[in-house]
Amino acid sequence: MRSIRTILAIAVAGSTALALAACGSSSSETTSSTKATSASAISTPGYPSPTTESLGGKRGGTLEVLQESDFEHLDPGITYAALDYPVVFATQRPLYSNKPNSTEPTPDMAAGPPEIAANNKTVTVHIKEGIHFSPPVNREVTSEDVAYAIERGANPDVANPYLKTYFNSLEGVEQADGGPIKGIETPNKHEIVLHLDEPKGQLVADALVLPLTAAVPKEYAEKYDKNKPSNYAAYEVATGPYMLKNDAEGKVLGIGYVPGKSATLVRNPNWNPKTDFRPAYLNEIDIKIGGSEPVIDRQVLEGTNVVQNEPVPQSGVRLAAEHYKSQMDISPGGGNRYVALDNKVGPFANIDLRKAVWAALDRVALNKERGGEVVSTVATHFIYPTINGFEQAGGLKGPTGPQFDYNEHPEGDMAIAEKYIKLAGYPSGKYTGTQTVQVVGASSPPEKEDAEVVNQTLKNLGFNTKLTLVEVSTMYAKYCGVPKEEIDVCPNVGWIADFADPQTVLDVTFAGKSIEPVGNVNYGQVDNPKINKAIAAAEVVQGKEARGKAWAKIDDELVEDAAAVPFDWEKTPRLEGKDVHGVAMLWNEGAWDYSFTSLK
Amino acid sequence: MIRYIIRRLLWGVVLLIVLAVLMFILFRVLPTANPALLRAGRDPQPKLVKEIEVVLGLNKSLPVQCWDYLKEIFLHFDFGYSYYSQESVRSLIAERLPETLSLTVGAAVLWIVAGLSVGIVSALRRHSFLDRALMGGALVAISAPEFWLGLVFLFLFASDIGKFKVFPGAGSYVGLTSDPWKWFTSLIMPWIVLASGSAAVFARLMRGSLSETMNEDYIRTARAKGLKERDVVRQGVRAAINPIVTLFGLEVGVLLGGAILVEVVFDIPGIGELFYKAIQTSDFPVTQGTVLLGSMFIILANIVVDVGYAYLDPRVRYS
């Protein structure tokens, strides 16, 4: 998801895979029939999953959390990483949040669902009474605190990474620099109105689940936000059931959070359970940062009162699958992965050559490299399970029909590939052009193996290739994210949605308007006028069902255009100690939800 | 001697400045990723990237950035702030230095005692079964990567995940002042793992050096004069130890800059682990700070070693 580290390390970014497992369910409970249908399609049988876990638990106790990596940012206005979110969502309450087993937003600080005006240009949210900030602020939260939280996102010293992606239609946001934003109105202490200059109310309403909308007390935070960069995180206060341990002045840094070493969550004395849906069973959460994954995996599987909170490496998955099956929670909805082919220049500007690669690629082999069916599903299109629009886009099977023959054989079909190579103008059925194809992949497993499989497929089709394997951040920063480098094939890129809307999967990754000279995430430089037009139209569609349908159609068109070759829908495993009732976040790569997790 | 030390220290400062400039070029001019781009999220808007560059001071010209950087380091001993936690790099390093010192000093004592003892015994019992066994063992210790050896120790002897629950495992480190006994027990395995490779090298070096020395004419003369064998060996060891001292100084210097693998495997939050995490996240101020610190330790260790020669070997005189 959002996470820089996740982007670089896992080759995807972001991860709040909100979204509906199937389509159209309005219930956040696992008992709905829609959920059951989708769960059977996307969950790994025999393992706990967020879709099947009970939300009940026993009150009390201290949970120990082991994680190799440090947090990136715990400031609610900056945070954008799957690893940060368990702490952020246990300590902060945005306007809306997700129950752990759901991808449907639930009112959190909001008193009810967002009210979207008929013209789709105004979003009104009423805020609950009786929510207080943790010490040392202590006072009640008002709509002005939410307004300040959003406004400070535009402060360059805070620099929220998604404000201008999802809230760019907010009036005055483009000129905002941390001061009041014209489009934010607070008519009274418990009401906030967002005025938009484009009819994108549904997208903005969906984006209210992001932590940017968690209240920040201006009179307390302002002095920290004046620092370059803001150090509010070192003194941040909470609205959720837990707070980072602090001193009387509110200082967190070095007390509740010691960078690279630990974080300690304790109960927020000002939290009022009557205003919250979180049960908050645990008394304390002690997070230990550091160590190495092989050791952490064993410490958790053989330990007590302990969980591991990062995606598990293959060795850990194997160990758990063989000996500790009930202690590995596997969450679907971990994003998609695909082979990006340069649609703009080079041989893959030819659609038939792209289809040939799709037909020839052994996607089953690629998934085996990633750990097989336990943690992976062969992808047939781009909108992945748990995202609204997945079923409309063809579900597990994907779009069908003779025009999609290249998608029918996930183990690869050279005969169909040769057919498309001939259609591309190479009568022998092999590519005979002279151009050497540049393939740039990541050097770490399993991305390295992915790259080698893709490279071999290209060779089998007759392409001369030059395979370059580099560190994953270099792959993005210097090659795949820089259009002028003209990399023909990036064999392992992907994406994870930020929230329950398919736009967050397909928009910036495939819209022509999103191509940037650096930091480009439309890796294949897909700039198809027909798809661009459909994207522009879908962006302003209102209503979950309608949006799912509109974006599913775009997904079909991307497949028909062979804009890239999807090969994997990720599932993310997490490990828990035998006496822990871990409850994972379906919407956040299966990270543990500390507000629902308990000790047995 | 004093003049020599002052001269070496001044050269050390010059060397550090050169290293700081080199690191600036490495991390700021030839980076693998623009930190502002990383900080701007996964759909980095150009305007946002520019704003973050201003906040991080990356918008200034490279020479200005370099000058500011050198000025802060050498005039104020300020390495800047972490891009992520916004904590001062100096504080981050200071917080972790006790862990790295604990690890290094303990391991150094262990490897010098074990390495010299094994080397001396092997040299005095050359070609015996004991010599072959000890040198074979040393070869194994040299060949075993620290990361692997650390994992083997943990899976065998850690009290939480080991087959034989003997020593506290990974993540059990506590500070010396908070609980000296726990501090000691938590470091036993890391010390052994960290010391094993160096001890083996020392043993082999000592064996070779002492074997050679024991064949020198003056040793034969000493024996002919009726000196006790123990005194003869003492003279031999003193003469043979010079190359070991050089290596010892260098290794201690390197480890004070962070024993990365051992710190990571045993989850000891020292300088090495800080450096490792900073590299992973392109947190350049932290990376630069830890590398400079490591360089400083190596330079200082070299000076200490050179001065130490004068005391160990009367033939060495500096002017």
Structure description:
The complex is a heterodimer of chains A (600) and B (319). Chain A has helices spanning 4-10, 33-42, 85-91, 143-152, 163-166, 201-207, 218-225, 293-301, 314-323, 351-360, 363-369, 414-423, 447-460, 472-480, 503-510, 529-539, 544-560; strands at residues 62-67, 96-98, 105-107, 115-116, 122-126, 184-188, 191-195, 242-244, 257-258, 262-267, 284-289, 306-308, 328-331, 336-341, 376-378, 436-442, 464-470, 489-495, 564-570, 572-575, 580-581, 598-599. Chain A is α+β, with helices and mostly antiparallel strands and 600 residues long. In chain A, strands 1, 8, 9, 10, 11 and 12 form a six-stranded mixed β-sheet that branches. Chain A has a four-stranded antiparallel β-sheet with strand order 4-5-7-6, covered by helices on one side. Chain A has a four-stranded antiparallel β-sheet with strand order 15-19-14-18. Chain A starts with a helix and ends with a strand. With 319 residues, chain B is mainly alpha-helical. Chain B folds into two domains: 2-76, no CATH class; 95-318, MetI-like fold. In chain B, 74% of the residues lie in helices and 0% in strands. Chain B has 14 helices and no strands. Chain B has helices spanning 2-29, 35-39, 46-55, 62-76, 89-124, 129-143, 146-157, 180-214, 217-224, 229-240, 242-256, 260-265, 271-280, 284-312. The longest helix of chain B is centred in the middle third of the chain and has 36 residues, at 89-124. Chain B is globular. The model of chain B has no long low-confidence stretch (mean pLDDT 87). Classes of the chains: A alpha+beta (600), B mainly alpha (319). Chains A and B meet through helix 1, strand 9, helix 8 and helix 14 of A and helix 2, helix 3, helix 5, helix 7 and helix 13 of B.
